[in-house]
Amino acid sequence: MTSVREYYAKHLGPIYIWMAGGIDQAIKRGEAEIKTIHALSPGRSVAVDLGAGFGMHAIPLAHQGFSVIAIDTCSGLLEELSLHQGILPIQTVKDDILSFRSHLTTEVQLVLCMGDTLTHLPDSESVLQLISDIAETVMVGGEFITTFRDYSNALTGEQRFIPVRSDADRILTCFLEYGDSHVTVHDIVHEFDGSEWRLSVSSYQKLRLGPDWICAALKSNGFDVRRESGMAGMVRLVSTRVK
């Protein structure tokens, strides 16, 4: 089974911006989401974007006035972020999100972990460790905001086939295969090379995380949690550190 890091580097990374509908439209959606959440007024504060990718949320945060540390394992996506950030105060870091504290020198006001990044962690213990580290990093009154897909209830039958995006030259469909603790995501890509359609299939695993479990972990680490409906059917948790 391909690791998440290898999968993004070799398979998903090269088509990720296309999958998101193009970088400009994706950043506009990220900006709209940030405004919907009512993120804190930055002042001169630092925000950390875990799994930042090409900057869908990091760039809007920097426009708001945050100094952003954008962490991801995919070099290609971070390079795209660097190309589009201009003079914005964004520091890109190629590293595992579990190592984010090694790149900080102070408490931060805001930590984001958007998209489906939490489910990319290898096991539930890693999620608990990340939440604990975030709790020790975010200042009292600061926020941790995350979105993720709820894989706790397994889809069955044809529901397991999910159309992601298509255009005249490419079609991406996902097929989900559920195990006890993980769901295996099979990405099925049809691409037209000018003369014929070519098929490629690749797969990787995501954690089956449930919102109630994550909420409980956040509360036990001193966060007050607000649950919302996120973009594209995701769960969004807005957590404020209260102690």
Task: From the structure above, extract its key features.
243 residues; alpha/beta; Rossmann fold; N-terminal domain of TfIIb; 2 domains; seven-stranded mixed β-sheet; four-stranded antiparallel β-sheet; 6 helices; 11 strands; 30% helix; 35% strand
Please describe what this structure looks like:
It is a single chain. The protein has 243 residues and is an alpha/beta fold. The chain has 2 domains: 4-150 and 210-241, Vaccinia Virus protein VP39 (Rossmann fold); 157-207, N-terminal domain of TfIIb, CATH 2.20.25. It has 6 helices and 11 strands. The chain has helices at residues 4-19, 23-37, 58-64, 75-85, 124-137, 211-220, and strands at residues 46-50, 67-72, 90-94, 108-113, 138-148, 161-166, 170-178, 182-192, 197-207, 223-229, 235-241. It is globular, with a radius of gyration of 18 Å.
